[in-house]
Amino acid sequence: MRLRDSDQVKLALSLFALYIIWGSTYFVIRIGVGSWPPLMMAGVRFLIAGALLTTFLLFKGAARPSLRQIVNAGMIGILLLAVGNGLVTVAEHLQVPSGITAIIVATVPLFTVCFGCFWGLRATKLEWAGIILGLMGIILLNTGGNLTGNPLGALLIVVASVSWAFGSIWSSRLDLPKGLMTGAVEMVVAGGVLLAASRISGERLDNLPDTAGLLAVAYLVIFGSIIAISAYMYLLSHARPALATSYAYVNPVVAVLLGMGFAGEHLNPIEWLALGVIVLAVAIVMVGKSLYSGKRTLIQNDREANAATDKCDDPAA
């Protein structure tokens, strides 16, 4: 079916939001942690974004979530945003280059396939090949130089990626609020948890963040959280899953280019090779998932067609 011009524009804008905006957040986080304590910055970002989005949705007449839905969304918010994004922010505060951070985070789809097996989502041989290749890419990346002197930063990003992957696959098994309200509740809960962690860890804001730091948080609130999440929700309901999740292997390229162009970051030949290996691995997993979904749809259609034929042949029909 041919998309209308207005739908094509929405699709293009949504992809731009995921490819460029989400890809740029790693660089913007790097700017922000220059004058913000990391956990505090992440907490402020999500609490403000969540409060604004919740207020807007309730004003527009969105259904109020039940207590169970709030609790479920809160747990997912902790895994995805408090642990996932929070640890990424801490890692960049520890001077892990934003481009390197994005490359490691690109492995989230690989971990997602692994966790899916716990819920009976069988991975194809092609997906397993992608996972193995991605793990080789991570090992290669850790020998490149930027991470060899910062093992804690590398570990935090890997833990963040695992947490995001587990939360993503678990969320599909929970009763969550409808539409964008899920993201709004997740951000409010995650923001509160991050600010509590900031307080417990002894973070202090001795001076008001500089202009760059304030603008970084404003960008992350408006573009990185509200707009990008809304775009992702739109793509999930209006585009093929493979297209909606294609940001996973575009974001690291965008982040690397921004880090090199504006933050003086650089990748050595081994790290460039690791980037290519990981992007290829994610692409293989996406293709494997798409082929499996297509095959499953064909099987389901065949079953329905056979059932209809049997019913027509039944004298009692």
Largest sheet: none
**Count of helical regions:** 12
Order of helices and strands: HHHHHHHHHHHH
Mean pLDDT: 84
Shape: globular
Question: What class, by secondary structure content?
Answer: mainly alpha
Question: How far apart are the termini?
Answer: 34 Å
Describe this structure in words.
This protein has 317 residues and is mainly alpha-helical. The protein has one domain. It is 76% helix and 0% strand. It is built from twelve helices and no strands. α1 packs antiparallel against α9, α2 crosses α9 and α3 packs antiparallel against α7. It starts with a helix and ends with a helix. 46% of the residues are buried.
Summarize the structure.
The chain is mostly helical and 317 residues long. The protein is 76% helix and 0% strand.
Q: In terms of topology, how is this protein built?
A:
Layout: H1 5-32, H2 38-59, H3 67-93, H4 98-105, H5 108-116, H6 125-142, H7 151-171, H8 181-200, H9 211-238, H10 241-244, H11 251-262, H12 269-313
Name a few traits of the molecule.
12 helices; single chain; mainly alpha
